[in-house]
Amino acid sequence: MDILLVASAFNSLTQRVFAELGDRGHTVRVELALGDEALREAVRRTAPDLVVAPMLKTAIPADIWSSHVCLIVHPGPVGDRGPSSLDWAVHTGATDWGVTVLQAAREMDGGDVWASVPCPVPAVAKSDLYRNEIADAALDAVLLAVERFASGTYVPQPQDTPGTEAGACVRPYFDQSLRRVDWASDPTETVVRKLRGADSQPGVLDELLEEEWYLHGGHAEDSLRGRPGELIATRYGAVCRATVDGAVWIPELRPRRKEGGPATFKLPAVLALGDRLPALPEIAAPWELPDGRRTWSDIRYREAGAVGFLSFAFAGGAMSTDQCRRLLTAYRSACSRPTSVLVLGGSRDFFSNGIHLNVIEAADDPARESWENINAMDDLVEALLTTTDRLLVSALGGNAAAGGAMLALAADEVWCRSGAVLNPHYRLMGLYGSEYWTYTLPRRVGDEEAQRLTRRALPVTAARAHEIGLVDVVVDSTPQDFGAVVADRAARLASAPATRRRIGEKKAARERDEAVAPLSTYRERELAEMHSTFFDPGAPYHALRAAFVRKTKPTSTPQHLKEGTSRVRTSGGA
Question: Domain named Formyl transferase N-terminal: which ranges (predicted)?
Fold first, then answer.
């Protein structure tokens, strides 16, 4: 079928729906919801068989939904209505939720139901929940709804059908009055729930050091104490703030936008506060945390027999210069351990999205910070590529993009959860790219496919990535079970008879590749391109970065999304 995706942004869920439908042979195009007339023109131009809206913040015009079947993805169970469904799910402590695909109608969220899929609600941040459990359920619901539509026989069910739901629940917009933290009375669990419910957007508006800030993200701390509301420590860019019965770590802050002022953006809390921050102790966390500890660290290490697990969880998947360097230090420490398999990642949600554009944008010299950041990423990738005394596994529990996707390719094997989406390209940020991608990507998928991936700049499903050789194993698990499945598979890899032989062959293979073209050659060539971009004030990268960081609304749908994809899924190869 010809399917038009209508979305307020080409976000993670829209990307997944786009790629999964394309894998199944549908012709899929995207139109960003930038105005009713532009949407009408897109419908006239593409004449779609079906319109699907994976993420839409505005209503589809009545003249479109009255003449075309338009399926709306609502992140709530049947009967749930309103713009803040997930906020209410987190706020009320729901343990079970769902996603409903309904037909656009005059009443918002009140149309007939084409599909509904339930999902659990683990105690994670709202954005993590959205990208994982909600995205899994949404994809299943969309595929079912599309299949039902294609049959030509299915009749969608009105929401008031007996047995379908107990009654409509229209929830109001979840505004800041509901998010406000009362530091004098809210216990740690309540504070954490409020912070997690607004971790990515919109943040929790609060007063800190006599200024207004949006707080992003929250993690409980079990040992530090202080006067409720005061800042008591820092760690790796985050600040620790005391509650009535403990404390919480807050990784990121965003200043409230001043009237008429430029858009603000999230930064590591210590960097955002700058000179305002009083002298506080920097309290490091050990790589390995004892069982039962409740504290925050963005890098952790543990061992199980012959397997080491180096996990990292950076906000938004972005890796600043400092984070890259700390991860490299942790990696070298992990490599000093007597393990035969080292797993990188293995947690739910983002693997990595490459360099930290927000930190770069905030720097006094963004060009210089860009250069430092990409070199720190390259140092990390080089360390992986030159490790020959153990097998390395990149375990992608969530999405990976740009340099983060290339970081994964530096390992011997790439294991990817079935729900992850990969964006192995840099072009949309105006960059050539580095992280040794000109070495690792072609050796996995071939020169032709490498060029296609980087030039088309479209998302790739885990299944498609496996078909073309971008990943080695697709792990079909829930987000919560991914770590356990990876651990079990890693243990079997460590004990496999062939593993010792594979490790023994790594050094010779690296030497053969080095004789053909030294790693330094790839790095120097890539960095020459990056240097010319970073230090050219007129390069598109600078404007693209600023627009991305400040979430500037585009004026039109990018051409590569309008063209979309009509790829038919194949059994293998490029």
Answer: 34-141
- By residue count, the chain amounts to 574
Q: Express as a percent the part of the chain with pLDDT over 70.
A: 97
Q: Residue 115 pairs with which residues in a beta bridge?
A: 101
CA distance 568 to 333: 45
- Beta-sheet pairing, 27-32 with 2-7: parallel
Separation CA 235–CA 224 (nearest Å): 12
Q: Could you tell me which of 424, 374, 358 has the C-alpha nearest to residue 534?
A: 374
Q: What's this model's pTM, rounded to 2 decimal places?
A: 0.95
Residue with tokens 């209503």: 59
Structural domains in the chain plus CATH codes: 2-170 (3.40.50.170), 176-276 (3.10.25.10), 299-482+499-533 (3.90.226.10)
Cβ partners under 8 Å of residue 352, min gap 6: 312, 314, 317, 319, 400, 401, 403, 404, 405, 407, 408
pLDDT tens, 258-288? 988 999 999 999 999 999 999 999 999 988 8
What pLDDT score was predicted for residue 292? 82
CA distance 351 to 323: 14
